[in-house]
Amino acid sequence: MSATSFTDTRADLACALRWAARLGLNEGTCNHFSLQVAADRFLVNPWGPHWREMKASDLLLIDGTGKVLEGDWPLEETALHIHTRIHLRHPHATAVFHTHMPYATALCSIENGRLEPCVQTALKFFGRIAYDDDYNGLACDANEGDRMAAKMDGKPVLFLANHGVIVTAPDVAQAFDRLYYLERAAQAQVLAMSTGRPLKLVPGQIAERTVREMDAGNAAYAAVHFKALARMLAREEPEYLG
Predict the structure, then answer these.
(1) Which of 13, 80, 199, 221 has its CA 20 to 30 A from that of 193?
(2) pLDDT in tens, 200-212
(3) What topology does CATH give the domain 3-241?
(4) Helix %, strand %, coil % of the chain (to 5)
(5) Quick one: what percent of the chain has pLDDT higher than 90?
(6) What are the residue boundaries of the structural domains of the chain, listed by start?
(7) What span, in angstroms and rounded, lies between the C-alpha atoms of 161 and 144?
(8) What single-letter DSSP state applies at residue 111?
(9) How many CB atoms lie within 10 A of CB 13?
């Protein structure tokens, strides 16, 4: 990766973190976004800065053992064990975003919580979500990271019971887009469930056709979405590039 593209990659990840905080997708200074930039090299947000103040230069470059190769902040332990294990097990998982965002986490907090095909936005994820229904405490070792990675079974999204969600994608733009629309779909479902009326589900055959149609344009739509976010952030908070 060239110096220029590596700088751009850092800026993209910092942008994603700031926008996630703007939208209320983070929880305190917890949760992590990471990006694999080489076979055994990963960018990840450090333990310390709030996502709203994250700068490109704050991001850590680590190896698979958690050794900090670049950066002045410490690495949060669970970030190492969750993220590196998923990156290494799943080739499609270049970007790995883990959050406790409210509505998706609400679905993780009910018995057999599932994202249902009850709104068009949710159809983006039809057949694309794995579910870990067994909460197993904090990810304080590589074994727990490996357990989570195995649960993904090649799918780009993982719902963690009693915990939160993990979203993966080939790049930052697609990961952020996927995270954003996942929360919007979960929000619509939770609001619909709050009425006490039964959900109106899209039939499986139509859902399968629709998700294939959406897959064809996901990368382009995600790029346009993220470029717009980056333009707005550059105008309003240009210090994130520092």
Answers:
(1) 221
(2) 999 999 999 999 9
(3) L-fuculose-1-phosphate Aldolase (3.40.225)
(4) 50, 15, 35
(5) 94
(6) 3-241
(7) 14
(8) T
(9) 26
